[in-house]
Amino acid sequence: MIEVVFFGRGGMGAVTAAQLLARVATIEGKFGQAIPEFGAERRGAIVKAYLRIDEKPIEIHSAVTSGDYVVVLDGRILSQIDVKAFGRPNAIFIVNSKEEEPWYIAIDATSIALKHGLVAAGWPLVNIIMASAFAAVSKAVTIEGIVKTIPEFVPARAAKANVEAAKEAYELMSKKIAARAV
After folding, report:
1. What's the whole-model pTM score?
2. Residue 154 belongs to what domain range?
3. Interhelix angle 127-138/143-153, nearest 10 degrees
């Protein structure tokens, strides 16, 4: 079983990213589970979402306490929360950031979102981009599954831009992972 912790801010779509990936897993013949964790947070407050993907039915129905992957939709969260505490000893961290650090894989999802016009209420929408980055790193789901599922999760007017941004993020992260393996 793969377990993932997503960190985002209210309105960024961390919950949607987890839900989309769980849906893709089911479409691809696996089992997926997305669990949101939020209360009365306002837009911009830190929220968490959890994802599980497995080849067999998932019988756990609680928050992920330590993930195989930790996906951070806003790099500024790193200065507010010790996200490392939410990863297992060999966890892989994927962070929306221009800055590279040895302990995480960075992707500038904000720039990709802006390039494709993915902005709502002044916020770059990076959730689908970060879901695609996770897919490229984990290989838990395919980019084809993400592309097929995007129209279920975004308004029709934003589907094409999200598909293009998702493909760009997947390709970028795939190249980054291949370069690290060499």
Report:
1. 0.95
2. 2-181
3. 160
CB–CB of 53/140 below 8 Å? Answer: yes
Enter the tokens of residue 31.
């089992």
CA 36 to chain centre: 13
Q: Strand ranges (DSSP E) for the chain?
A: 2-9, 31-37, 46-54, 67-72, 87-96, 105-107, 119-120, 123-124
Q: 23-61, pLDDT tens digit by residue?
A: 999 999 999 999 998 766 567 789 999 999 999 999 998
Task: Write down the residue that tokens 């992920």 correspond to.
Answer: 64
Arithmetic mean of pLDDT, 153-164? 96
Containing 130, the helix (H) or strand (E) segment is helix 127-138
Percent of the chain whose pLDDT exceeds 90: 85
Angle between helices 127-138 and 14-27 (to 10 degrees): 50
- The first and second tokens of residue 113, run together, are 């979102």
User: Concatenated DSSP letters for 20-65?
Assistant: HHHHHHHHTTSEEEEEEE-SSPPTTSEEEEEEEEESS-----S--S
Kindly state the tokens that stand for 74: 């806003």
CATH of the domain at 140: 3.40.920.10
pLDDT in tens, 131-158: 999 999 999 999 999 999 999 999 999 9
Structural domain total, the chain: 1
